[in-house]
Write a structure and sequence with these properties.
Elements: E1 2-6, H1 10-22, E2 27-31, H2 39-47, E3 52-53, H3 58-62, H4 69-75, H5 81-90, E4 95-97, E5 102-105, H6 110-124, E6 127-129, E7 134-140, E8 143-148, E9 152-155, E10 157-160, H7 172-175, E11 181-187, E12 189-192, E13 205-213, E14 219-226, E15 230-232, H8 234-242, H9 244-249, E16 253-259, H10 266-279, H11 295-304, H12 318-329, E17 331-336, E18 338-340, E19 346-351, E20 369-371, H13 385-399
Parallel strand pairs: 1-2, 1-10, 2-6, 10-20
Antiparallel strand pairs: 3-5, 4-5, 7-8, 8-9, 11-19, 12-15, 12-18, 13-14, 13-16, 14-15, 16-17
Helix pairs in contact: 1-6, 1-13, 2-6, 10-12
């Protein structure tokens, strides 16, 4: 059997490795259009590679995917987090779990993961060809003809792991084969606040913070990072994933509401601020920092509500108290535009899951064609979930079950 895997990313390599492991007599050829293999693996997690996420159950794991939860719940029955950990451990790569559940190699280097994947592919005899873009696929009798710039490769089975496409036309070749395509939109992006003075706090991290999109039900709690262009950090990235389509429909112009206390209610906040007047009466407001807020953000909020940070706490009046409570619970900022999160570009959209069998990853409209990774309408929030989906779908696709 001749198998062609299209795409040299995480899903593509895992699919090729799986194909050779399950079909040792087959010829497996992996085609990558660029001169770089496993590019996203290399930059993930700041170069440390966030391999997966510690989740006790498949149901819990699947909840972290804004698109694809039900589909993946079935897929995770075959290959889940424990399988990922075991697979890398068998190849000498131990993973560690950080406080937030993210899992990295103990080496803290993505090269460790890349070496494991490249090494296993080489050991199994996967043929890897770089700078080999696929121009089109055609069905001929009982096989596929994979057209590249230089040749036509016949294959009984083809696995497509080309990753997400930022534009609909990038998926047209799959639509031409009869697949329904969910239009791609960006996911995992940061919020631009071009006209907000808050950007002067660049580098400040507040945790936990509750972030909401005004006029929607979208909200997220976690660390918030202020950057020179606006808001980033896990809370914002999660929000961008869950709200990918709504925010795109709003042309990325919306109001961000921030509860700097992580979601505490007004009554509790008011009570703690009132206590400052007696418990820290002579202390300057700027030094009486409540709710473990970063000092710079607390002083910024004081100035925002037109309060003198040098004022003694005992002079905190009723009107000032009301303004502070509002600033802490419902601070508002105008977002206009987005910025890609580092180089970890993720799209929502792709091949419709209705056209793919979750237990085999085979196309329901094109026999002998399988899918893996972000080319499917699957995307997870930040934290290792997109890689776990790549390992799972790649492993299943490589089994090439009918």
């Amino acid at each position: 059997m001749r198998i062609v895997v299209i795409g040299g990313g995480a899903a593509g390599f895992f699919a090729a490795i799986s194909a050779r492991a399950h079909h040792p007599g087959a010829t497996v050829t992996l085609l990558e259009k660029s001169d770089k293999l496993l590019a996203k693996v290399r930059v993930s997690g700041g170069g440390r590679c966030n391999v997966t996420h510690a989740c006790d159950t498949n149901k819990e794991l699947a909840r972290h995917y804004p698109r694809g939860e039900r589909f993946l719940r079935k897929a995770f029955e075959q290959f889940t987090v424990k399988d990922t950990i075991g697979w890398f451990a068998e190849r000498g790569v131990e993973l560690k779990t950080e406080a937030d559940g993210r899992m990295f190699p103990i080496s803290d280097s993505s090269e460790t993961i890349i070496e494991a994947l490249l090494g296993e592919a080489e050991r199994l005899g996967v043929k890897v060809r770089q700078r080999t873009p696929v121009l089109r696929l055609k069905r001929a009798d009982d096989r596929w003809m994979v057209h590249t710039e230089k040749e036509v490769l016949p294959a009984e089975r083809v696995i497509i792991a080309t990753g997400g496409s930022p534009k609909l036309e990038g998926l047209q070749w799959l639509a031409d084969l009869g697949h329904r395509i969910v239009p791609p939109v960006p996911s995992l992006f940061t919020f631009n606040l071009p006209n907000e003075p808050l950007r002067e706090l660049m580098g400040v991290v507040a945790d936990p913070v509750l972030v909401r999109i005004a006029g929607t039900k979208l909200e997220s709690t976690g660390p918030l990072l202020v950057t020179h262009w606006g808001f980033s950090g896990p809370a914002v990235l999660r929000l961008s994933a869950w709200g990918a389509r709504e925010l795109q429909a709003a042309n990325y112009t919306f109001t961000v509401n921030v509860n700097w206390t992580g979601g505490r209610n007004e009554e509790l906040i008011r009570s703690e601020l009132q206590a400052l007047r007696t418990d820290q009466a002579k202390r300057k407001l700027k030094n009486a920092i409540p709710f473990l807020l970063p000092a710079r953000s607390w002083e910024f909020l004081l100035r925002k509500v037109q309060m003198d940070p040098e004022l003694a706490c005992e002079h905190l009046g009723r009107k000032e108290l009301n303004r502070l409570v509002n600033a802490l619970t419902n601070d508002a900022y105008q977002a206009s535009g987005k910025t890609t999160f580092k180089e970890e570009f993720v799209t929502a959209g792709g091949v419709s899951l209705e056209d793919v069998e979750p237990r085999t990853m085979q196309s329901r409209v094109a026999p002998g064609l399988y899918f893996a990774g972000e080319v499917l309408d699957i995307d997870g929030i930040t934290g290792g979930f997109n890689f776990q989906a790549a390992w799972t779908t790649g492993w299943i696709a490589g089994k090439l079950e009918p």
